Each structure stands twice: as C-alpha cells, then as structure tokens.
C-alpha cells in the first residue's frame, strides 16, 4: 500500500458563452503532495473546439493554450528550487496560479481526486478521458469536390451522356481554368462541382471568393462559356448562413453562371440531357 498516493485534479475548460455555459475541455492539471507530483496536459489540437464553436478566433486560442503551457512549466520549474509541495494543498490551488477563475473564456472545473500507484499513467488516463476521447468523433468526414464530382458523373452516366462531356481549359493571356466536365453547344457549358462542407464560415466564404476571382481572371477569354456550379451544402446546420453568403458571392461572378444545389441536380442533369439530345437531333436533321 506504500505505493498508493492521493491526488487531485481539475480540467481546463474553454467556455464559449457565459450565459449558456457551454464548454469543452482542453486540458487537465494533476497534483499530489504525497507523490510530489505536478503535471499539466493540454491539447495541441483545437479542432474539437472549432467544430463546436466555428467562429472562434483560432490564432488567439492557440496563443492562450501556449501561454497556459508555459505558465504550468514555469511553476513546475520553480518547484525544483523551492518546497512547492508544502505550500500547495491541491490541484485547484496550483491551477489558480496558472489562471485565475474569472469571467474569461478559460475556467477551471470543480476539484476532483482519487488514488493512484502511477501518477504519470493517471494523468494520461484523465487527459484521454476528459480531452481527447471525443476528438476523433469530432473529426467528421467532410465531402470533397471530388466526391461531388463523382456523384455528378454517376448521374451523367445513368442518362448516357457522360461521353458527351470532355475537359476544357478556358484561357486568357494571364490565367486559365480547367473544367473536367464541359459540353459545347454554340458555347461551352462547364460543370464545376464544389463542396462547401467545410469546418467554418471563413473557409466557406474564402472558397466562394476564390472561384469568383478565378472567373474574373478568365472573364475576357475568347471562349464563350457558362459555368454551372453544382454545390454541396455544409453538413453542419449552424453554417447555413455562411453557405448562403458564399452563394451570394458566387452570384456576383463577373462571368454569368448558374448555381445548382447538389440535391436538386437530378432535374438539372435531366434538362441538360434533353438539350444535348435535342441538339444532336437537329444536327442529324440538317
């Protein structure tokens, strides 16, 4: 029984909203005066936080976590030169030396504790239990442009018109855009699958701005063309407003284009199939 040590611990919470009290754990501090042990473990991956609170300032959060790590390490180093463990009663006492509990976004949980024969192992267990256990679940699969492309190609195949499409590069003297699915009927009809199933609003709007910029760069091309953006929505419902903003940005493109929601693409492709067969029939009649 001589190897068993009492310990206490607190978790560090990122509190996004002081009114709703929503929070996510980002670290844990474990202390044992009997074992002369102090350790803080903090996450290096903020995806769990940003998945729950997508509008958070990422750079600021990373800076805060680095500061907390540094403060913890400084206290541990100080403990090597003074009798740290005689002046601290539990993990809450040391945690308040790292960050004072106030109305800021970072707050300590209520004190808890237990007994352990291996405090290092216990720390890792607590860190996994409260911080990292759900990180893999948070890393949701996000649909890519290629997955939307594959879905659209499958629908073209089912209507026997995929062979009517080919790659087309729209060029100017300064820039170019490659479209993998293009069909010509007097002008080029260029399909561009786009997935907006991204992690936050900034990335969603940036992707729309990027494509608006691409079209501006080739707007004076000698090729007459119409882009058809087949767009996939974000899976997260709280990003719907950001998705709407992205569509508004695309609609301001300098090249007249059409936007088709992926879930409505069946009707669009059916209409395109009719146009293709009608065009070919007219050609054969002539």
TrEMBL record:
It comes from the Bacteria. It holds the Pfam family DUF3037. This is DUF3037 domain-containing protein. It comes from Gluconacetobacter tumulicola. The lineage of its organism: Bacteria, Pseudomonadati, Pseudomonadota, Alphaproteobacteria, Acetobacterales.
């Amino acid at each position: 029984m001589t190897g068993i040590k009492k310990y206490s611990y607190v978790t560090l919470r990122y509190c996004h909203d002081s009114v709703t009290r929503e929070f996510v754990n980002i670290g844990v501090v474990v202390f044992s005066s009997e074992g002369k042990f102090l350790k803080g473990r903090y996450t290096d991956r903020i995806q769990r936080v940003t998945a729950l609170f997508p509008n958070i300032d990422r750079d600021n959060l990373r800076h805060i976590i680095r500061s907390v790590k540094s403060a913890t390490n400084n206290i541990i180093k100080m403990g090597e030169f003074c009798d740290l463990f005689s002046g601290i009663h539990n993990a809450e006492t040391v945690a308040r030396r790292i960050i004072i509990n106030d109305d800021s976004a970072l707050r300590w949980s209520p004190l808890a504790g237990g007994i352990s024969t291996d405090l290092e192992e216990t720390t890792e267990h607590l860190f996994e239990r409260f911080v990292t256990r759900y990180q893999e679940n948070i890393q949701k699969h996000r649909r890519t442009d290629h997955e939307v492309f594959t879905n659209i190609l499958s629908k073209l195949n089912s209507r026997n018109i995929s062979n009517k499409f080919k790659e087309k590069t729209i060029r100017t003297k300064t820039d170019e855009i490659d479209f993998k699915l293009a069909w010509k009927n007097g002008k080029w009809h260029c399909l561009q699958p786009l997935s907006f199933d991204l992690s936050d609003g900034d990335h969603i709007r940036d992707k729309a701005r990027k494509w608006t910029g691409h079209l501006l760069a080739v707007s004076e091309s000698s090729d007459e063309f119409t882009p058809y953006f087949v767009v996939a929505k974000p899976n997260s419902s709280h990003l719907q407003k950001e998705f709407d903003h992205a569509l508004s940005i695309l609609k301001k493109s300098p090249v007249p284009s059409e936007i088709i929601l992926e879930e409505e693409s069946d009707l669009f492709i059916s209409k395109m199939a009719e146009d293709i067969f009608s065009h070919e029939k007219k050609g054969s009649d002539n």
